[in-house]
Amino acid sequence: MDILEILRTRQADIYLPLFMTLLGLMLGLILYAVLHRRYHYACQENEAIVSITVANVINPRLTCRSRYSKDEGLMLFIGLAALVSSGIYLFNRVAVLNLFYYCTVFIMSLWTGGFLYSLLKGQYSGWHWAANITFYAIFFIVLFMAMGKAITPNYAPANFQYSQQIVNQHGILGLGNYFSALDIRWFIFHLLGVLLLFIAMFRLCLSATYFAVMGRYILSEESREPWLARKTRKYAKFWENIIFVSLLLFAAYYLIAGDFFMWFEYEMPNRVDSFMNALLHGL
């Protein structure tokens, strides 16, 4: 069995993300260990701060040197990047999904390794950090399930498995020769789910990046706030990130799997008709 056949098996789907997770965790631990030796606490003289909490990172002005700034263009960039990626997804589903998935797993694991090191060293404190790490783990699991449904949805057109080949040979307009109008509507919902999935990955990566970079900045001697922290400050919202990303994942999963399409096309019209009949004519 060659390497390409191995990559197509289910074992590869599990072991490769696990390898990326362990690699990211180890590199995160090493990176933060090196940074711990290079820097000492910039706020050590402030007795009010024994260790860094999530609240300190979200509101750095209450602890150390910081200037508020935000970048409204970053959200537009994320939306455009996710939209373009969704378009490329039509031409090579597996490659695009794997690229985003492995990059997300690696980035999140890298910062998680750093968070764990800081918690063990007493640099970070508070249950919010543990909650953040737990949410990342749950995110990985749900993301893995959504990725599987993108390859083999619960409900899909008969020719869905050949859609990538059709698009590569005949272009996007060529789908009309092999799929009905109902099938095209299914594709629209499916692509919307993929778009939401990409946005969820982008947002969580940017949020974790802010917490990682800003946390190290507060502990360091640097006087200037990192550029990356300023650009990602928009995503420094603990509960909003958890709720918003969870909703994105939930919606993306049901859109990608085809369950929402089946409800929208078949179940919802029947329920609406029943409701209107009951409203107009009584039960």
Can you tag this structure with a few keywords?
mainly alpha, 283 residues, transmembrane, 11 helices, disordered N terminus
Short description:
The protein has 283 residues and is mainly α. Helix content is 73%, strand content 0%. Mean pLDDT is 78; it is low at 1-7, 41-49 and 62-69.
Please give a structural write-up.
The chain is mainly α. The chain contains eleven helices and no strands. It has helices spanning 3-8, 10-38, 54-58, 72-89, 93-120, 127-151, 163-170, 181-219, 227-232, 238-257, 259-281. It is elongated and about 70 Å long. It has one domain (3-48, 62-281). The N and C termini lie far apart (63 Å). Helix content is 73%, strand content 0%. Mean pLDDT is 78; it is low at 1-7, 41-49 and 62-69.
Give unreliable regions as ranges.
Answer: 1-7, 41-49, 62-69
Order of H and E elements: HHHHHHHHHHH
Sketch the major β-sheet: none
What is the beta-strand fraction? under 5%
Number of helices: 11
The total tally of domains equals 1
Compute the average pLDDT: 78
Based on secondary structure, the structural category is mainly alpha
Shape: elongated
The helical percent reads over 70%
Could you tell me the number of beta strands? Answer: 0
Straight-line N-to-C gap: 63 Å
Gyration radius, in Å: 23 Å
Task: Give the SSE layout.
Blueprint: H1 3-8, H2 10-38, H3 54-58, H4 72-89, H5 93-120, H6 127-151, H7 163-170, H8 181-219, H9 227-232, H10 238-257, H11 259-281
Helix pairs in contact: 2-5, 4-8, 5-6, 5-8, 6-10, 8-10
Keywords: Membrane, Transmembrane, Transmembrane helix
